Amino acid sequence: MRILRRNLTAYGFLCVALFCFTVFAWYPMVREFVLSFQRTDLINPPEWVGLDNFKAAVADPAFGEAWLNTLEFTALALLCGYAVPFVVALVLNELRHARAYLRFVVYLPVMLPPIVAVLLFRWFYDPGPGLFNQILDFLHLPPLAWLDSSSTALISLVIVSTWMNMGSATLIYLAALQNIPPELYEAAELDGAGIFKRIRHVTIPQTRLILLLMLMLQIVATMQVFIEPYMLTGGGPENATVSVVYLMYQFAFSQMNYGQAGALGMMLMLALLVFAAFQLRTTREDQA
Amino acid sequence: MIAVGAGTAGRKSRRAAGRRPKPMQVQFRTIVSPHQLNSRWGRRIYWLVLVSVVLLFTLAFVFPLYWMVTGAMKTPDEIAEMPPTPVPQDPTLDNFAEAWDLFDLGTLLVNTAYYAFGAWLFSMVVDVSAAYALSKLRPMFGNVILGAMLATLMIPPMVILIPLYVTIVDLGLLNNPWGLWFPAAANGFNIFLLKRFFDSIPRELIEAAQIDGAGPVRTLWSVVLPVSRPILGVVSIFTIVTAFKDFVLPLLVMTDSEKMPISVGLSQTAGAVTQNQVMGGLVIAGIPMIIVFFVFQRHIMAGLTAGSIKG
Amino acid sequence: MRRSTGLLLVTALGLSATACGSGESPQPAASGGAANVSITVACQPAKTAPNDRKAWDEDVAAFMKAHPGVTVKSTDQQPCFDPKTFGPKLAGGQMETVFVVPMTNYDDVIAQGQALDITQYTGSVKNWNDLRADHRELLTKDGKVYGVPNVHYSVGLVYNRALFTKAGLDPNTPPKTWAEVREAAKKIAGLGAGYVGYGEYSGGNTGGWHFTQALYGRGGSVLTDDGKKAAFNSPEGKAVLQTLHDMRWVDNSMGSKLLVGWESLMMAMGSGKVGMMLGAPDVVTDVVTKFKGNVDDYGITGFPEAKASLSGGEAYMINPKATPEQAKAGMEWIDFRFNTVGKGRFDFARGKAIGNPVGVPDNAVYGDSPTGKALQEERVKNASLPVENYQTYVDAAAIVPPKAEPPHAQELYAILDVPMSGVLSRKDASVDELLANAETKANAMLAAKG
């Protein structure tokens, strides 16, 4: 009886959360699965169409480009958004002055709503009076087309994305670095290890877990890139910045084909799950 | 877990007096050894690196904001000038007023504040009670539920955006704040953080309250919550900041221009007004979160590392 | 024990589910007799266009006074037809009673059952029979009418007269051939940094749309006559892209910024630094009223070397979920605000007073019917501009045959954005290759759509 009462109270406390999770987190996953096999425009009753949505999604003119762009964006973002913050954190950790200021400013862009950062950079990228070309001009360098060329558009998006997101990664690394026991460095030094050897044999192994975790988070985050192409390029020029999520959005809200969008969403979910499983396995092997 | 007082390093070093170059204060050992750091070349390189990092950071993270604010103070002609003027020739605040009217920033800010506050209140009530139940009341299948909640963290929000949106449409929650508040409360990370903190509260404390005859609600309210202030602060700030910054879900859910939050409102109107007015709008939209950052800096930085695994 | 917990779980869920259910806002009941009916109408001018907004609000007040019991609520979403929110709004019960749809989307909207059959209400629009028959035809499927034509135009060349004068060109003899367009564009771009001779879109489906305009003008087609295959990989299609490529990279007269989305070029045109663009007369109206262009600066002429002209426009439709009372009130609103000579949008005297470019022949929805003639008379009488500025366009529009958009227009425009952005962003772009690729994609899309 007491157990029953305890459970009753507990579920009383849990019920609203369970409702929120059921309806707005768990059910949408199931719904995505169902949706991807239906044709629905939200107005007429949905009909079952088998694999048609998947076929249509794959047959879309931008499907291949969207995946390639997303992978390229992820790779570039790893370079900028993953490696750069770690190096920055390494340097910051060595500094004895202005630490509070540096930590403050690196995190400042993270606090801005993404839309503010994106619209700000839209102006910076303006090929005429935009800040970046004016700086290039000031340095007597030729101007770049930034968002307006298929060769530079994607990297331009990566720059915005890195600018507005790198603060949190940097601070997380910094905290991890400060947890490294100093004795390890002293021991390495006694063994005659130089600075780079110390980084390789002490810093990286000691922060390995957080590095792996951040790698996963970073990849999952960048695979979802949307707001940058949505606001800055509209997927152009020449489809160079169409991302998977952007294409999904187009399926749903430009072509009003929610089933096809669901099918693409399923594919993205599968891709991410496969990646996560792979990541988990390497982490496990690593610890074993 | 987080480095406390990192910023005090500089202050302490200043206290060291003497004519000799004062030795670099070393609060904790890092890659570069104190010995190397205090050598002749070590110092030179250190100062060089320090100055360049400070300059670089200022250029990379502060200058764009400076450009945004001054851009908002220029006239349409001046903002299109090539080469640009580093300082507005004739600074004007008119653009802020114009942006305020054109973007209808008053309405947008009120909406955003309302959504953020609602999301905070609702998430806190829901997530705290859920975490409390999972941590202290330990119901059957509690671990299964926690696991399922944490599993949602593995599924990125954009992936289920379409079905989530369809669900919101089905429930008739378009242009209804609950269409944002319900999904905001379904936050596995908040529950994880809260539960982990509640787990660390000593059993005796709870039992003492129970012996005094306190029910679970009283225990939560007068024993658990008071000792959990730090984590509540962290979770609160992050919930509010996230709600304020949110873009994609409100873009879909809040289609009525009277009900849009600021992110969506800016994105809808930015194409139809001049560049200096856009900048005015951006400055105003950026200010609230910058203020929050100034005030709650410590909490935010603490919260950032609260969930990470000890490295 | 286990079972009871499961049961509890279900009960708890059920409880919270009902709690939510009661939170749902009930659909506004259409009761209380025919006298009290409430409708929402789209397309109130944005706050960025205060004069127009005020005029609209006056009209709403006048309409409500003339129709006691009818409550009109306006929405000002911009643009007032947004494909992104159209379906969701309709499905979520948020759609206005009266909404606007561009010609491009007629087929989709009607086929998907997103508009009400208004055949029985057409009588509410007093000049119904004077509306262009060919436009009404586009809104009629299987003998049922789904919309009231609201705007009808064919494409011409919009140009900035002030810039023409400044560049030493005669604004009264605008270019008639593409060679002349190129020459004029060069001169205007030569005025200095920031000046653009000829503006063109390259993304957000507007690139493909303007490609189609230019292609039609040169006598080409997007699709074959049976609509099954792409036909734009043709000499005409190549000429369109080659001209743009040469203007951009040889003449340097198109600026260096890619323009994505409708507002981008309109904004540039309004700033007074763009010499010419393809567009209908409504571009002039929008540039002046929404993008702060100077009324006297803009002119429009016939499409250069025109063989055909893409016709465009929009229609008002009624929410399929509207009650008969709402539908009737909605139609009365459409009649009052949009189809009455001397009232609402055709109140040219007021238009002139608030600084609108009255005199621009921006709407041929009534053609040369009696209503159309009466409108033209009113327009000329209250013209705030020399109507001669637009005579070349009017003359051309009378001769050049109109040509409708291709089926699957949005999908095709998305595909055609790519070659447009290609020639405008890459100096080494190959016109042949771009068109061949687009053709392959378009054929695959058409095959998939059946």
Automatic annotation (TrEMBL), chain A:
Keywords: Cell membrane, Membrane, Sugar transport, Transmembrane, Transmembrane helix, Transport
One GO term describing the cellular component: plasma membrane
Membrane topology label: Multi-pass membrane protein
Major location (coarse): membrane
SUPFAM superfamilies in the cross-refs: MetI-like (SSF161098)
Bilayer-crossing regions: 7-27, 73-92, 104-125, 145-164, 209-227, 258-278
Stated name of the protein: Multiple sugar transport system permease protein
Organism of derivation: Nonomuraea wenchangensis
From TrEMBL, chain B:
Basic residues compositional bias, start-end: 11-22
Main location class: membrane
Biased composition (Low complexity): 1-10
Keywords: Cell membrane, Membrane, Sugar transport, Transmembrane, Transmembrane helix, Transport
Bilayer topology: Multi-pass membrane protein
GO CC terms: plasma membrane
Alphabetized InterPro entries for the sequence: MetI-like, MetI-like_sf
Transmembrane helix found in the keyword field: yes
Location in the cell: Cell membrane
Region Disordered: start-end pairs: 1-23
Signal peptide: none
Gene Ontology BP, a term: transmembrane transport
Domain ABC transmembrane type-1: 109-296
Transmembrane segments: 45-67, 113-134, 141-166, 178-198, 219-244, 278-296
Family: Belongs to the binding-protein-dependent transport system permease family.
Protein name: Multiple sugar transport system permease protein
TrEMBL record, chain C:
InterPro entries associated with the record: Bact_solute-bd_prot1, SBP
Pfam family, one: SBP_bac_1
Species: Nonomuraea wenchangensis
Residue ranges of the TM segments: none
Signal peptide start and end residues: 1-19
The entry's keywords: Signal, Sugar transport, Transport
Protein's name according to its UniProt entry: Multiple sugar transport system substrate-binding protein
UniProt superkingdom: Bacteria
